[in-house]
Amino acid sequence: MVAMTPFEATSLAISARGKCISLYEPHKKVSSDSEPFVIPNLPDEIKMTRMQLPDLPFSFYELEPAYADYYRKLLERKAWHIGRASLYNRDNAEEKEQRGNEISIDQNGCLKWLDSKKPGLIVYVCFGTLTNLSDSQLMEIALGLEALGQQFIWVVRESKNKEEWLPEEFEKRMEGRGLITRGWAPQLLILDHEAVRGIVTHRGWNSTLEGVSAGVPMVTWPVSSEQFYNEKLVTDVLKVGVSVGVQNCVRLKGDSIKREAIENAVTKIMVGDEAEEMRDRAKTFAKMVRQAVKREDPLTLISIL
């Protein structure tokens, strides 16, 4: 029996897929690293490639019921589900703002900027604290956001060096349309704001839960670890997001994604009938998260496998 804490951020789907890959070794039955294989005996048809395999829950039943049942019955393991832990303190704005980190922009300044925007117009772009994208990739993101014409908040890592990747006068051109912050930002406050309609992120499990809990569609941009599994959950199972098109598990550097792919993916979650359908599904899951927490069932307060 292994005790699971919020610091081991993963989902039941990820654990089940990892177990099946270990048991059945489908990755050994394909002829190349890029050839897709189906992970056998899962509730859904999930295809992966050897390039996407990470180094082999922190969840709630309503999010992935098929995998919760799979874990209990086929794998003969018990699981109690905690949901998004931050919702237990959902009325504490200071806790939402800090989440254990020193932020780079103050709460009032961020909210003031968001409050000046109409509902459902902002896309939030953030890749976590560990991902180190190349200068050329950051340039492509900047140009993709500019070509998109969408309002945005973009969180980038702080750097002591000159940001040569930033297009000339980019921030001046984006003034009023985009907010760029360097370092940490109050992600929970941002995602819960009515102005935010979608999120572009690396699909770490914490960010996945936060996106689902906020009821916003997602562009998935996995970099490493379990993030390709999280992407499949978001795009293929929950159907609340689209992939930007990353194919390789590249440690802490990310794949090379061009501005056109970024523009296309963000458009899919922000505009049109498909975006509305994803948004409706995301809102449904968000209600499930909050209802699961409101029940205050003792079994939701800890995750144990």
Automatic annotation (TrEMBL):
Keyword Transferase: yes
Keywords: Glycosyltransferase, Transferase
Entry-linked InterPro entries: UDP_glucos_trans
SUPFAM superfamilies xrefs: UDP-Glycosyltransferase/glycogen phosphorylase (SSF53756)
KW Transferase (keyword) present: yes
Pfam families: UDPGT (PF00201)
A molecular function GO annotation: UDP-glucosyltransferase activity
Family listed: Belongs to the UDP-glycosyltransferase family.
Annotated protein name in UniProt: Glycosyltransferase
